[in-house]
UniProtKB/TrEMBL annotation:
It catalyses: GMP + ATP = GDP + ADP. It comes from Halotia branconii CENA392. This is Guanylate kinase. The gene is gmk. Keywords: ATP-binding, Cytoplasm, Kinase, Nucleotide-binding, Transferase. InterPro entries: GK/Ca_channel_bsu, Guanylate_kin-like_dom, Guanylate_kinase, Guanylate_kinase_CS, P-loop_NTPase.
């Protein structure tokens, strides 16, 4: 299995010498990425989770600066114009983006930095950082995926339909990723991600 390599970019930038590593975790909405991330962070406090910026409204219980930075569309567009994002994408009617400086600073300081982002953003990251370790989380099947989205009880019918529609497109891209993990049994999936992050030697 492939190990996460030191971050590199095609251009001759400071990132070339960086000792840090960048990991991208992608998969359809409701597959369990957030839940897997929370467990990973609890078990491995040395991981640095990149908090994204979004124009989506906070869900009950979500905390500003912990789950996301929640901002308006006009503010988001200003940040795009200023080049503040390492990557950004529109998903289910909202913008989501990764703050460039925060992530690059953490990588430069030697951290293992994890981005939990959707497919288009993951593709952008792979373009700039070909040596990123990319992980795709798959659902056991679409019925189970729908159950998980509904079970979360956080999304409107319209949002559920949009997420399911996009999920069917997204899973077709799983083959582009270094590692594919089916999140059926939670512990098994978590262990597979841990192996990819910490224990692979080849
Ligand atoms: N490209 C990109 N996608 C993001 C970012 N942050 C979160 N996402 C993705 O946006 C999608 C929607 O996230 P969210 O609204 O929190 O819904 P949920 O993942 O279905 O709970 C998910 O696939 C996230 O992984 C980001 O900074 N950039
Ligand atoms: N392996 C699993 N088996 C059953 N339910 C799961 C599993 N992993 C996650 N879930 C549940 O699925 C729902 C969606 O998970 P979540 O982490 O919010 O997904 P995502 O961040 O990918 O949108 C949550 O209610 C979560 O508890």
């Amino acid at each position: 299995m492939m190990q996460a390599l030191p971050i590199q970019s095609c251009a001759n930038t400071q990132e070339d010498q960086s000792p840090g590593r960048l990991i991208v975790l992608t998969g359809p909405s409701g597959v369990g990425k957030g839940t897997l991330m929370r467990s990973l962070l609890q078990r491995h406090p040395q991981l640095y989770y990149s908090v994204s910026v979004t124009t989506r409204s906070p869900r009950p219980g979500e905390i500003e600066g912990k789950n996301y930075y929640f901002i308006s569309r006009s503010k988001f567009e200003q940040l795009i114009a200023k080049g503040e994002f390492l990557e950004w994408a529109e998903f289910a009617g909202n913008y989501y983006g990764t703050l460039r400086e925060t992530v690059l600073n953490q990588v430069r300081s030697g951290k293992l930095v994890v981005l939990e982002i959707e497919l288009e953003g993951a593709r952008q990251i792979r373009t700039f950082f070909p040596h990123v370790l990319s992980i795709f989380i798959l659902p056991p099947d679409f019925d189970e995926l729908e159950k998980r989205i509904r079970g979360r009880g956080q999304d409107s019918e319209e949002a559920i339909a949009r997420r399911l529609c996009r999920a069917k497109e997204e899973v077709k891209a799983a083959g582009e990723f270094d590692i594919k993990v089916v999140n059926d049994n939670f512990e098994t999936a978590l262990n597979a991600i841990e192996t990819a992050l910490f224990n692979s030697n080849s």
